Amino acid sequence: MIQLFNVSKVYSNGVKALSDINLEIEKGEFLFIVGASGAGKSSFIKLLIRDEIPTKGQIMIGGRSILRLKRSEVPHLRRKIGVVFQDYRLLENRTVFENVSFALEVLQCPSWQIKPRALQVLQMVGLSSKCDAFPAQLSGGEQQRVAIARAIINTPRILVADEPTGNLDPDNSKEILKILYRINKLGTTVIVATHDQEMVDSIRKRVIALEKGRIVRDDLRGAYRCEA
Amino acid sequence: MRLRTVLYFMRQAFVSLSRNGWMSILSVATVAIALFIIGSFFLLVANANAIASQLESDVRIVAFVDVSVPREEVLEIREKISKDIDGVVDVQLVPKEEGLKKLGERFGENNNLITALGGKNPLPDYFIIRAEQPQEVKNIARAVDGIDQVEKVDYGGKVIERLFEILRWVRLLGWAAMVMLTGAAVFLISVTIRLTVYARHKEINIMKYIGATDWFISWPFFLEGMILGLIGAAIALGTLYFSYVSLIQNLTLTLNFIPFISDPVFLGRTLCWLLLLGVVVGALGSLISVRRYLKV
To answer: Percentage of residues in chain B with pLDDT exceeding 90?
Structure first.
């Protein structure tokens, strides 16, 4: 589903974020990218959604190089990949329902399709009772669940989350993980970049550890720390 | 484009206009002032053109024939001028009798100019020649002067040339000012709209991540710019129209020999063009500023 070949990323200010990454991610996989701050997790995510372009190497998604995409094709790539950020990135002046349906609005879906789908995903993240609330009236965990609902409303094949629990307490983190796990069970490939050890250790899934921009470990049923 | 999408864009544009109230007012004022100045320059140039062409069509060459030349020969010369010299539209012969009559009229009804002159008419026959193009006047004058029997040629020479020179500069500077002002207006509007866009860059950013296309993101801003441009232009045109009309009314009272433009068709067309310019400038200005935030 996702393949990276010899991918390196050096930013224009000279910072080497990723070096020589080779990786294959299967369809329907659940994958953690772990590592300390500055290890290259966010850069990895940015490369996948073509927010950044690698300095070297090739990235294939669904058998197509995403580096060769024209500017006008990038939106279509992003529709196949739902993104969740640490800081939620919700629109403050819109309700929960509007934030979620916004994603389909942008894709010009007819409204008779939008409403039931929005209610469905909000129910999935357990927020159907908060439809008319504004983001500021929600807790951090709830806001992140809205962000997840928005990311999956157009049923992307891949969901990437960059530190989704970075701002949350353990209980809320668990809740987020549960939701991500459920989404994965429905067939979506889920990639989570995190340094939340508890989350990684609670479900034994594939773990890729980054250190100074290199893959130092790739365990199929791994934990946050190396169990050698 | 679906109707729903169009409505969505319109709603977004109006929501943004009212949400950024002060910025919207600022942008409208910018467009209004810029268009008012551009419009003023345009009317200045148009009037300079009108005056110039009026003067140009008035330029005539007067050629005096030697007094001793008999009438038949004078008629031949007339044929020659109208046929052989390029750019001549019309040659009118003013015979010496008519010249004397005109002169007599100046002295009053009951004069006996002819007696005073000893019963002989001392005036020469002369031609009034009109040129097709004002630029040809000089050459025609020279060619007519080359004819042996022609004693003297007069066409206002230096004065007319100076006047044309001045009018040409007025036109040139007017156009240059208009072009520069239009550029400045686009720039100013794009700066003001950029601020409203900046206020929404977070939203633009989220839209990009969700997978909205560039044009989908740009359209509401594009419409917003058009609306700003339209309102600004309407204000500018109203002001311009009323101040121009009252100015012309006052000027024609004191300077009624100058042919100021007051043709309503021309004015209407000018105002329409300015309105269009306002809309285009507004749309362009906002498009330029949105593009900067689309590079995510």
So the answer is: 4
Residue spans per domain, chain B: 3-55+161-294, 60-155
Does the model's ipTM exceed the 0.90 cut? no
A35 to A53, A86, A189, A208, B256: CA distances (angstroms): 21, 16, 20, 8, 87
Torsion-angle region of A208 (φ positive above 0: left; ψ -120 to 50: alpha; else: beta): beta
Q: Given phi > 0 = left and psi -120 to 50 = alpha, else beta, which region is B91?
A: beta
Q: Is-contact B160 B178, C-beta < 8 A?
A: no
Contacts of B2 in chain A (CB under 8 A): 108
Report pLDDT for A159.
96
The answer to whether A179 and A101 are in contact (CB under 8 A) is: no
pLDDT band at B189 (very low <50, low <70, confident <90, very high): confident
Find, among A191, A106, A180, A194, the residue nearest to A149 by Cα.
A180
How far is residue A108's CA from residue B188's CA, in Å, rounded to a whole number? 33
Q: How confident is the model at residue B1 (pLDDT cuts 50, 70, 90)?
A: low
Which letter does DSSP use for residue B124 in this model? P
CA distance B122 to B132: 32
In chain A, residues with a C-beta closer than 8 Å to the C-beta of B291 are none
A166 burial (CB, 10 Å; 0-12 / 13-18 / 19+) is: middle
List for chain A the helix, strand, coil content (%; round to 5): 35, 25, 35
Digit-coded pLDDT (tens) for A175-197: 999 999 999 999 999 999 998 88
CATH number of B60-155: 3.30.70.3040
- The pLDDT score that the predictor gives to residue A99 is 92
CB B114 within 8 A of CB B121: yes
Tokens 């209004």 sit on residue: B32
- Which among A72, A78, A91 is the nearest to B209, CB-wise? A78
Whether residue A56 contacts residue A8, with contact meaning beta carbons closer than 8 Å, is answered with: yes
CA distance B296 to B292: 9
Closest residue in B to A149 (Cα) is B210
For residue A73, give how far its alpha carbon lies from the nearest alpha carbon of chain B (Å).
Answer: 9
Cβ neighbours of residue B168 closer than 8 Å, sequence gap 6 or more: B52
Task: Tell me the per-residue pLDDT of B86-113, one tens digit each, with 9 for 90 and over.
Answer: 778 788 888 877 877 777 777 766 666 6
Percentage of chain A exceeding pLDDT 90: 67
Among candidates B203, B206, B211 on the partner chain, residue whose Cβ is nearest the Cβ of A75? B211
Cβ B225 vs Cβ B286: under 8 Å: yes
Residues 6+ positions from B141 with CB-CB distance below 8 Å: B61, B153, B155
Domains located in chain A, CATH noted:
2-219 (3.40.50.300)
